[in-house]
Each structure stands twice: as C-alpha cells, then as structure tokens.
Amino acid sequence: MIKALLLLFKSVPTWESIVHSRRSLLYVLMVQFCPLLLLFCLGQGFYLVNWGHTRGIVPKPHIFGVNETVVFEAVQFVFWMIVLVVDAVMIKAFGETFHGRHSYTETFTVVGYTLSVLFLLLLIGAFIPIHDLVVFSIAMIFTLGTMYNGLPRIMKPDPPHAFGLYLMSAILVGLTGGIAAALAHWYLGGKFPKLQNIFADWGSHLPF
C-alpha cells in the first residue's frame, strides 16, 4: 500500500526506485499486486455486506449475504488476475510493433504496479457515496497518469515511439479495467440473476 501511495504522490522518484530495485515477476505479483487487490476485495465485500448496492428502477440498497459476497469477490480477484496477465502480454506485443525488445517481467511490472494504484483508489472510493462507475473513471484517470511516468522508465522504448506505446497501453488498461468494473457493476445491480443464483449456491457450501 505504501508503494501505491508513493506512486500517486511521488510518482517519478518512486518509479525510479522500482527500476533500480529490479524486482522479479513473483515479487511484483505477491508483494505489490495481490495484497492491494485482496485489500480492495475485502473492503468492497465489507461494504456490500453492511450497506449493499443499489438495485431496481427505484434505487434501493440490496444487502448481500456473506457467503455470496465471498464467492463474488473470489471470482473478481481471479478476473483481475487474468486482466493483469493479458495486459502484460499485450503490452509486450505492442512494444514489439515499435521495434522494442521488452521482457515479460518488464511489462508485468508496469501493469502490476499501475493496477495496484487503481485498487487503492477503488478501495477508498468504495466508501464514498458516489456511483461506482464514476469512482472507477476518476480512479482510472489518476492510474493512467501514474502509468505515464512508469512505462518509459521500466520499458525504455525509443523516444520517438514512447508516447505511441504509452497511448496504446493506456487504452488497453483502460478498456480491460473498464470491462471488469462494468461486469461487477452489472452483477451487483442485479443484471445477472442466473449468475447470482449460481454464486449463492456456491456460497451455501462454504463452511461458515
């Protein structure tokens, strides 16, 4: 969490320290990405169980059961993991179209640290009474601003290609993150009743 905060408020020197530290893919995943994602899921789950999510033509809060919430957050956790892997693969491919030779660890580092900032902002936004997609949009703007400082320092593209690579990567991260946020919003809003029944059934088998 501290690193995510530093990326928000002291973006450039923090990215520089990340470059010098040369962390492994496993470190980025287990120390930076997963803890922030887990914290976001726990915070959102706590909110859903205690205050719920608005549903219906006439908006009313729907309080979620603990078991269903655990299943939903577990699925969301896995989905964001998939987003991380796919984004890292695609950004590596983008780099090659600009004649760059970037390792998967470099692109994984860029996406992992970038999304950790997003999860921190979404965690804070979960407890603010604003529409969740509005919170996501604002959080994504700040997140992509952080990424703007990190991508060229980690991947070191040729200067003429740097902005093009960033732009394509930012669109990808914004799009995949937006899909994840929209699916979660629609589920919480009751748009997938069959899926909700499945999650509730899975949750009924949990030992609590």
Distance between the termini: 29 Å
* Average pLDDT figure: 92
Element order: H for helix, E for strand:
HHHEEHHHHH
Computed Rg: 18 Å
Fraction of residues in helix: over 70%
Instruction: State the low-pLDDT regions, or none.
Output: none
Structural class: mainly alpha
- Give the overall silhouette: elongated
Specify the biggest β-sheet.
2 strands, antiparallel
Indicate the proportion of strand residues: under 5%
Strand order of the largest sheet: 1-2
Number of strands: 2
How would you summarize this macromolecular structure in one to three sentences?
This protein has 208 residues and is mainly α. The protein has helices at residues 2-9, 11-21, 25-50, 66-97, 104-125, 132-155, 159-188, 193-204; strands at residues 53-55, 60-62. It has one domain (2-203).
Write the layout of secondary structure elements.
Blueprint: H1 2-9, H2 11-21, H3 25-50, E1 53-55, E2 60-62, H4 66-97, H5 104-125, H6 132-155, H7 159-188, H8 193-204
Antiparallel strand pairs: 1-2
What does this structure look like?
The protein has 208 residues and is mostly helical. The chain has one domain (2-203). It contains eight helices and two strands; from the N terminus they run H-H-H-E-E-H-H-H-H-H. A two-stranded antiparallel ribbon has the order 1-2. A hairpin with a 4-residue loop joins strand 1 and strand 2 (60-62). Helix 1 (2-9) packs across helix 2 and helix 1 packs across helix 5 (104-125). The radius of gyration is 18 Å and the shape is elongated. The model has no long low-confidence stretch (mean pLDDT 92).
